[in-house]
Specification:
- The protein has eight helices and 17 strands.
- The chain is of the alpha+beta class and 388 residues long.
- The protein has two domains: 7-129, Rossmann fold, CATH 3.40.50.2300; 162-386, 4-Layer Sandwich (Phosphatase 2c, domain 1), CATH 3.60.40.10.
- Strand 7 (187-193) and strand 8 form a beta hairpin.
- Helix 1 (15-27) crosses helix 4 (106-161), helix 4 (106-161) packs parallel to helix 5 and helix 7 (343-353) packs across helix 8.
- The longest helix is centred in the middle third of the chain and has 56 residues, at 106-161.
Length: 388
């Protein structure tokens, strides 16, 4: 590709200046366009402008000011040719980028012009890069807006899969605090009344954050089978069997990323106070008796979606006034007083609020444990209270 000759626009009224400027430039390979000092730049896109301030200094200064104002958003270097060095300051203040005193050596003129052309070339490259970056920025903004809309849709979908209200069953009360770290998260919970006296519920935590984790929580919602119906009869699925089936279903998906889920699933009989649960790699449930110290119910259980395994079942009989808390590993950042983070802080806060009703207790726990601590993970706390 042959590069076009640089165009030099010369505003001059004196033949002497025209001759001393035009000839050396054309001999050096530049294209020189001529205009009188009172003319405007019409249809010409010069690379450098030369102003004759020798013959008519004031007219050249006025034109220089006018040209510099018009070129405020771009750059066209201006070389002011003056009659004496004492006019240098006036020329530069009028907007010229360089000042050349007449008479001058042709080599000095060419050096000045080439220096100004280098400045313009660098400016034009930067301007092109800036324009390119602006286009990229606009495309990124459009992409971010699209992502933002998709995240908002994912949030609404995920929230629609959460219980819209807590089940009402004589003898039992529930409360929940659900705090995703971002708009969509990996924490999930569900509660469902199974018959006149039984309620099933769980808290789960899918690996990671964002949309992939939220998709796993939706899978859990669809895959949990708490009840088997056969004609007019039904069977409530024990918690360990619920986890075993969910584990098989996850493995059967053969997902390339090998996602995993932790979960604590419980089945409670409000008529007898029987609390049965199983755990899959999830934090231990916290038992808060009406009297006596709170304690964690420890039980083995592997992560869901990793390998075929069985899950143990544990059963307890609750007394009226007893409470049980299920929560996710966002609790690991819990801090209260000078207690160590996590379980120790949770026990201390529970001890402080153990006599409150379950809904007040959950609110106070969230406030005390995370009021002064920045959460770095999703957090879900699901509390159950056995009442008279």
């Amino acid at each position: 590709m042959v590069r076009a000759k640089p165009t030099i626009l010369l505003f001059a009224d004196a033949a002497l200046v025209e001759d001393s400027v035009r000839r050396p430039l054309e001999e050096a390979g530049f294209h020189v366009a001529m205009e009188r000092l009172g003319a405007e730049v019409n249809g010409i896109a010069p690379d450098v402008i030369l102003l004759d301030g020798v013959s008519t200094s004031e007219a050249a200064l006025q034109l220089c000011r006018r040209l510099r104002t018009k070129a405020a958003e771009g750059i066209t270097p201006i070389l002011f040719v003056g009659a004496a060095a004492i006019n240098r300051q006036a020329g530069l203040e009028a907007g010229a980028d360089a000042y050349l005193t007449h008479p001058f050596n042709p080599s000095e003129l060419l050096a000045q012009v080439r220096a100004l052309l280098r400045i313009k070339e660098r400016h034009d490259r930067l301007a092109a890069k800036t324009e390119e970056l602006q286009h990229v920025h606009k495309r990124l903004q459009a992409a971010y807006q699209q992502i933002d809309m998709e995240l908002e849709l994912a949030r609404r979908i995920q929230e629609s899969f959460l219980p819209q209200s807590l089940p009402e069953l004589p003898g039992v009360r529930f409360a929940v605090a659900y705090k995703p770290q971002n708009r969509v998260g990996g924490d999930f919970y569900d509660l469902f009344r199974l018959d006149e006296s039984h309620v099933g519920f769980y808290v789960a935590d899918a690996m990671g954050h964002g949309v992939p984790a939220s998709l796993l929580t939706i899978f859990v919602k669809q895959a949990v089978k708490a009840k088997e119906i056969n004609g007019n009869e039904y069977r409530l699925t024990p918690p360990n069997e619920v986890l075993a089936k969910l584990n098989r279903d996850l493995i059967a998906q053969a997902l390339s990323e090998h996602p995993f889920i932790t979960m604590a699933y419980a089945l409670f009989d409000a008529r007898t106070g029987t609390f049965r649960f199983a755990r899959a790699g999830h934090p231990y449930p916290l038992y808060v008796p009406r009297e006596g110290p709170p304690r964690f119910w420890q039980i083995e259980g592997s992560l869901l979606g990793v390998f075929e395994t069985e899950f143990r079942l544990q059963a307890h009989t609750l007394a009226p006034g007893d409470k049980v808390l299920l929560y996710t590993d966002g609790m690991d950042a819990a801090a209260v007083d000078k207690q160590p983070l996590g379980g120790a802080s949770l026990l201390a806060a529970v001890e402080r609020h153990r006599n409150l009703h379950i809904d007040d207790m959950i609110q106070r726990l969230e406030h005390d444990l995370f009021g002064q601590t920045q959460r770095t993970d999703d957090l879900t706390i699901l509390g159950m209270e056995y009442v008279d």
